């Protein structure tokens, strides 16, 4: 009897510990995403043109993993997507996502790579709500321009629904993510929010509050782009 009770308590402790580890992972990813946005945008000559991030309805960040899970030869990344309420309002709660096929770090010659995605219009945002969406196929995409102004952007870049960037070893550039598979990470969202929520509820309806671990990312986005985007009703 005592053995069975001890085993039961051990299993409860193990389950609680596992949930704590998972929650820490979501929080760490959000904190790293905030750092990536801040570090990129504080160097305006080498960052994202302000008019582009002001036009974006959503911003996604895939921070490099400390253990080098993303980089040369890597094929999988985890990130967070944040959208403006109503498309042009304040930044809302994050929805976690995964991207498979991330083997583009070699283009910048780095071992670990951060990625940033700007979703430029309502159609691009709606596409990413699907169970799976292929960047460049289901939503038009292009490597984004870099610098203080987007005046030198090509027609392809200006028409793209998603603009994508990568940073490694201090270098930051627009990099094509065509062919990468974008998928909402429902398991991570459940761990982050303590229950099931659809990406639409999290990103567009405003039914889900920003978690404490997501406040830093919202603050960073608000600092560099407090309002803008394309209004829409999901």
Q: What tags apply to this protein structure?
A:
single chain; 234 residues; alpha+beta; 9-stranded mixed beta sheet; 7 helices; 9 strands; 21% strand; globular; disordered N terminus
What does this protein structure show overall?
Strands 1, 2, 3, 4, 5, 6, 7, 8 and 9 form a 9-stranded mixed sheet that branches. The protein has helices spanning 2-41, 50-55, 122-127, 155-159, 186-193, 199-205, 215-224, and strands at residues 58-62, 76-84, 91-100, 114-119, 133-134, 141-143, 162-168, 171-174, 181-184. It has one domain. Helix content is 35%, strand content 21%. Helix 4 links the parallel strand 6 (141-143) and strand 7 (162-168). Helix 1 crosses helix 5 and helix 1 (2-41) packs parallel to helix 7. The protein starts with a helix and ends in a 10-residue tail after the last helix. The protein is globular and about 45 Å long. It contains 7 helices and 9 strands; from the N terminus they run ααββββαββαβββααα. With 234 residues, the protein is of the alpha+beta class.
């Amino acid at each position: 009897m005592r053995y069975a009770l001890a085993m039961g308590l051990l299993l409860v402790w193990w389950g609680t510990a596992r949930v704590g580890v998972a929650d820490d992972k979501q929080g760490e990813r959000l904190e790293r995403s905030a750092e990536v946005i801040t570090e990129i945008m504080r160097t305006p000559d080498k960052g994202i043109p302000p008019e582009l991030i002001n036009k974006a309805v959503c911003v996604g960040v895939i921070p490099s993993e400390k253990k080098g899970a993303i980089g040369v030869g890597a094929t999988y990344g985890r990130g967070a997507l944040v959208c403006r309420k109503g498309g042009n309002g304040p930044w809302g709660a994050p929805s976690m996502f995964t991207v498979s096929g991330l083997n583009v770090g070699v283009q910048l010659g780095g071992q670990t790579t951060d990625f940033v995605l700007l979703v430029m219009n309502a159609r691009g945002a709606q596409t990413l709500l699907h169970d799976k969406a292929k960047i460049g196929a289901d939503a038009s995409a292009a490597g984004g321009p870099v610098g203080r102004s987007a005046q030198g952007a090509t027609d392809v870049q200006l028409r793209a629904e998603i603009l994508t960037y990568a940073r490694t070893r201090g270098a930051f550039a627009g990099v094509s993510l065509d062919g990468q598979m974008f998928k909402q990470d429902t398991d991570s969202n459940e761990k982050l929010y303590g229950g099931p929520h659809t990406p639409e509820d999290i990103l567009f309806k405003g039914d889900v509050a920003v978690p404490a671990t997501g406040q830093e990312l919202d603050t960073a986005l608000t600092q560099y782009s407090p309002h803008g985007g394309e209004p829409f009703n999901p």
